[in-house]
Design brief:
Elements: H1 5-14, E1 28-41, E2 48-56, E3 65-71, H2 76-88, H3 98-101, E4 109-116, E5 123-129
Antiparallel strand pairs: 1-2, 1-4, 2-3, 4-5
Length: 138
């Protein structure tokens, strides 16, 4: 041991609680790596959703995580948003294959944009594919 309890007590008293890793990230664009991708049961057990966890890859928030969910539903608008997200992470299979193939997208680089809605103050996530050069894919 290269410390004493008195030294740790003194340091503990002088140190403020950490908040940077628990506070929401500010609105903006983040270059991220897809860290986890899963098909999950909804909390109410009435359906499924795609659950994605991104790790910020660069900048002052490097290492922080951003979580994104997209519900599976028969609504055409919802399917359109889901398809945009799946294309952004490089998924090209059928929806019926998500459970088996979604994790194959882990490691992809994605631009994640966080935006707060002025009316309801909720933060929304928008995904965009990145090309092999690190630029946004067209």
């Amino acid at each position: 041991m290269n410390w004493t309890w008195d030294e740790l007590d003194e340091l503990y008293e002088q140190t403020a609680p950490a908040s940077a890793w628990t506070d929401p990230l500010p609105d903006g664009d983040y270059i991220c790596t897809l860290a986890k991708a899963e098909l999950r049961q909804n909390q109410a057990n009435d359906g499924m959703h795609v659950w994605l966890q991104f790790r910020v890859a660069e900048g002052g928030y490097k290492g922080r995580h951003i979580t994104h969910r997209r519900v599976l539903s028969k609504d055409p608008t919802s399917i359109s948003w889901l398809k945009r997200d799946l294309v952004a992470i490089g998924y090209s299979g059928k929806l019926s294959e998500l459970g088996r193939r979604l994790s194959g997208c882990v490691g992809r680089t994605v631009r994640v944009t966080l935006k707060t809605n002025r009316r309801d103050k909720r933060q929304y996530t928008v995904l965009a594919a990145m090309g092999e050069t690190g630029r946004e894919a067209q």
